[in-house]
Amino acid sequence: DIVMTQSPDSLALSLGERATINCKSSQNILYSSDNKNYLGWYQQKPGQPPKLLIHWASTRESGVPDRFSGSGSGTDFTLTISSLQAEDVAVYYCQQYYSSPVTFGGGTKVEIK
Amino acid sequence: EVQVVESGGGLVQPGGSLRLSCVVSGFTFSDWWVTWVRQAPGKGLEWVANINEDGSQKYYVDSVKGRFTISRDNARNSVSLQMNSLRVEDTAVYYCARGRATLVFWGQGNMVTVSS
Fold first, then answer.
1. Contact between chains at A52 and B102 (C-beta distance less than 8 A)
2. Which of A19, B7, B54, B86, by CA, is between 20 and 30 Å from B77?
3. How many CB pairs under 8 A join A and B?
4. What confidence tens digit (pLDDT) does each residue in A70-107 have?
5. Would you call the peptide bond into A46 cis, given omega within 30 degrees of 0 as the criterion?
6. C-beta of residue A75 within 8 angstroms of C-beta of residue A28
7. Cβ-based contacts of B109 with chain A (< 8 Å)
């Protein structure tokens, strides 16, 4: 199974600051035939199901604010929140769907300082 | 509007059985894979099982193989997860979601507690 490792486990930032969450896969998840990274990012707020923010490592879902961006390729990926808002307090998970079973990272909790 | 609604959770003793159901609406159900994901209390997300559009392909995480069975009824827009030989470590909120990999639509989740 592909292991997804996120860092940090948590971070606390002031409103308006940039948040950076890292995700590393134990194997390459860039599929050479279509040049796509099989990686998604989810946001989960307390008491709610996860919400898909980004797929193919950098494609934002419809309706997701443009302060959220994804980058990276191969085994190293980043989710960036360019200017942290109060409503962004949540746990963020990366997910690989390159191979079965689909696996998630352990999550990064984002809080307001 | 897409809706995903799970039901069937509850408290069960170790070794017992439970059947979760997921009923969906708002899209052509038979065009989509369906996935079950679980989340133990205070923990992260774990993919559990999924099933393809016509039910001919089914996949499970190793920890539930031989104990859980996923099935679907396209006439009723529903998917079920039959859980047998339940263990304490199966305690979690179980989510049903549309899709195979990128999961856009999720239910609100159903709590399964395995405890004596």
1. yes
2. B86
3. 48
4. 999 999 999 999 999 999 999 999 999 999 899 999 99
5. no
6. yes
7. 49
